[in-house]
Write a structure and sequence with these properties.
The complex is a heterodimer of chains A (588) and B (84). Chain A has 23 helices and four strands. By secondary structure, chain A is mainly alpha-helical. Chain A has one domain (3-301, 389-458, 467-585): Sodium/glucose cotransporter, CATH 1.20.1730. Chain A starts with a helix and ends in a 12-residue tail after the last helix. Chain B is mostly helical and 84 residues long. The chains are: A mainly alpha (588), B mainly alpha (84). Chains A and B meet through helix 5, strand 2, helix 10, helix 11 and helix 13 of A and helix 1, strand 2 and helix 2 of B.
């Protein structure tokens, strides 16, 4: 069967499933719309959280990022999973006990301040809107490659599907579509990885294959990979070639940022009890780890596969000729994400590190690396083609990439629309609004958020990759410390929390803009973005950790200079620390 | 509420969280990054134990930590009579 038809069947089939679920899970009340009436089974919520969390970045980009650097990018694996330990122990159970619908709702009520609520809403909007851009562009890439439609059409189809289930079903619809999307994305990610692990090591489990013997060379896979990379003048895969200090800071920023992301936190409002919130965090991490333990195997194995494709007889033999390029290279060259250039005009592709050329490159006078562009995002999407797997696996990957992007987009859109309809409209502008009116406002905000996301997807700012660092940095520096202080410090008052959030928010934004340009506009950075210009050698991407520490310090110093929180607030904090009575908080 | 106070419950909670957080930091920032050179002598699949912790081991430890905390807290909730 034609590949295009197969892709269409898989993508179309999965979309039909999501719409079907949307019709079944319509929301009838604001409790349905914001929190699925707090009736979601903790294991189901774990799977939904995993889909909500694993975005286009996890599914499409992460294995490619690990493949490109090796050990140094383990930061993503540890950082994006370690945050769940923080969520399970420091935030989720108490937020569930408090029984509100949004993150700013907790901050506003706990710090008895509309200013605190507003600062939280602003942080949430910056974080979630920047995050949603990446999902829409990820969906557009998948559409244009696999369905051969232009980006615009692809985005309208994706937005249309999200519109149906998010506007109709709110959190309830999103929860059950995310469950379905998790199943689609995990199957799509695992199947090609199993095949490739079998081909290279004979071990069907990629998690074990990574540490197994490479059948062709008879030595451990990672040893072979290190050897071929060093033969071509690249760094070895398993060595540490960066700054240990920044690796620690960056990992910490990703962990704290993950725990502070509003669209992840609100998933824990959907379970019936406090104990379920803890259970749910555990299951979420199990479901995430099913993909995250496969990703490093996919990265290492695909890197080895690509090198052996380009150097079929090893570095001493003849490289691949331009007119013998496999189909997957031709397919991806058309997307502009892969490019070759015959610099020395010999019709052969010499792929090597031109900054540290191997002896043969100098002897034979090669004129530079001829695989001039390899976008990291190709790796996972092209994986089935690189490993010469059947066409249905490619169709599955297309559906999986879209499931990852759309499930995260829906979670983000809900976080955005509930902050607008619940915190801005109901809690600040029009407190007298009826239940029906608020539900309508929530649906209208959702429709606006989808329109905004589509527009941003059609006109992506040139800085889409950097804004993700901003989203994590801000979540780490503003929301996480405020929520944690609200639970763990009974005395923390409104002034302390507001000063803390503003210090965290502003210091992080200023530090990032100083090196990456004001609003990421190229050329407006005040200092060059190189390690010797960084303050104490701290990379702007790792600054979230520092912002969080500044937030804690500023809040604590302010508290010492002002009066502590009033007695009734301290009693409130005592009550959220014990699970008993969470059921009563369902409808507030 | 039973005979024991909320304060004791909270202290016990903070204590177990602290223990879990020490292990959390030890496997990731410790074994995976800072102490990796110390583990260089322990080989695993063509590399060393530190690389394994960075790419797989810390994640698996995180899962164990959360489920351990969950069952510990479920027991603690009952002991203090604050379960739902």
């Amino acid at each position: 069967m034609d590949q295009y038809i197969l892709n269409l069947i898989f993508v179309g089939g999965s979309f039909a499933l999501y719409v079907g679920i949307a019709i079944w899970a319509r929301a009838g009340s604001t409790a349905d719309f914001y929190a699925a009436s707090r009736g979601v089974n903790p294991v189901v919520n774990g799977a939904a959280t995993a889909a909500d969390w694993m975005s286009a970045a996890s599914f499409i980009s992460m294995a490619g990022l690990i493949a490109a650097v090796g050990y140094g990018n383990s930061t993503f694996l540890m950082g994006w999973t370690g945050g769940y330990v923080l969520l399970a122990m420091l935030l989720a159970p108490y937020l569930r006990k408090f029984g509100r619908f949004t993150v700013p709702d907790f901050i506003g009520d706990r710090f008895y301040s509309q200013t605190a609520r507003l600062v939280a809403v602003i942080s949430l909007l910056i974080i979630s809107v920047t995050y949603v851009i990446g999902q829409m562009t990820g969906a557009a890439v998948a559409f244009s490659r696999f369905l051969e439609v232009d980006n615009t059409t692809g985005l309208f189809i994706a937005s249309g599907v999200v519109f149906i289930y998010a506007v109709l079903g709110g959190m309830k619809g999103i929860t059950y579509t995310q469950l379905a999307q998790y199943c689609v994305l995990i199957v799509a990610y695992t199947i090609p990885a199993v095949f490739i692990s079998m081909q290279l090591t004979g071990n069907p489990l990629p998690q074990l294959g990574l540490w197994s013997t490479h059948t062709a060379s008879g030595q451990p896979l990672l040893t072979t990979l290190n050897e071929v990379l060093m033969d071509l003048g690249f760094n070895d895969y398993t060595g540490n070639h960066g700054s240990t200090f920044n690796m620690v800071l960056f990992t910490m920023s990703l962990m704290v940022g993950t725990a502070g992301l509003p669209h992840v936190i609100i998933r824990f409002f959907t379970v019936p009890r406090v104990a379920d919130a803890r259970t749910s965090a555990g299951w979420a991490l199990v479901f995430i780890a099913l993909l995250y333990t496969v990703a490093p195997a996919v990265g290492a194995m695909a890197r080895l596969n690509i090198i052996t494709t380009l150097w079929p007889q090893g570095i001493e033999g003849e490289p691949l000729a331009f007119d013998e390029k496999p189909d997957w290279m031709l397919n991806w060259e058309r997307t502009g994400l892969l490019r070759f250039e015959d610099k020395n005009g010999d019709g052969l592709i010499q792929y090597y590190n031109q900054n540290n050329p191997p002896a043969r490159a100098i002897e034979e006078g090669w004129e530079g690396n001829e695989m001039v562009l390899f976008n990291n995002d190709i790796l996972v999407l092209a994986n089935p083609e690189i490993a010469q797997l059947p066409g249905w696996v490619i169709g599955l990957i297309a559906a999986g990439g879209l499931a990852a992007a759309l499930s995260t987009a829906a979670g983000l859109l809900l976080a955005i629309s509930s902050a607008v309809s619940h915190d801005l409209i109901k809690k600040m502008i029009n407190p007298g609004i009826s239940e029906k009116g608020e539900l309508l406002a929530a649906r209208i905000s959702m429709a606006f958020a989808i329109a905004l996301a589509t527009w941003l997807g059609l006109n992506p700012p040139g800085f889409a990759a950097q804004v993700v660092a901003l989203a994590f940095g801000l979540a780490a520096a503003s929301l996480f410390p405020a929520i944690m202080l609200g639970i763990f410090s009974k005395k923390m008052n409104s002034t302390g929390a507001i000063v803390g959030m503003l210090v965290g928010l502003l210091s992080t934004v200023l530090y990032i803009f100083t090196y990456l340009g004001w609003f990421f506009i190229p050329g407006t950075n005040m200092l060059p973005n190189t390690p010797d210009n960084w303050l104490f050698g701290i990379s702007p991407l790792s600054f979230g950790t520092v912002g969080a520490i500044l937030n804690f310090l500023a809040a604590w110093i302010t508290l010492k200079m002002t009066t502590e929180a009033p007695a009734e607030i301290q009693e409130l904090v005592e009550s959220i620390r014990v699970p008993k009575g969470a059921g009563a908080a369902v409808d507030h | 509420m039973s005979d024991k106070s909320t304060d004791d419950y909270w202290k016990a909670n903070v204590r177990i969280i602290t223990i879990c957080m020490v292990i959390w930091a030890l496997v990731s920032f410790g074994f995976g990054i800072v102490f990796r050179p110390l583990l260089a002598g322990i080989p695993i699949g063509g590399t060393d134990l530190g690389f394994w912790f960075a790419q797989q081991g810390s994640m698996l430890t995180f899962i164990v930590l959360i489920f351990y905390y969950r069952s510990y807290m479920n027991k603690l909730d009952k002991e203090f009579g604050v379960e739902e």
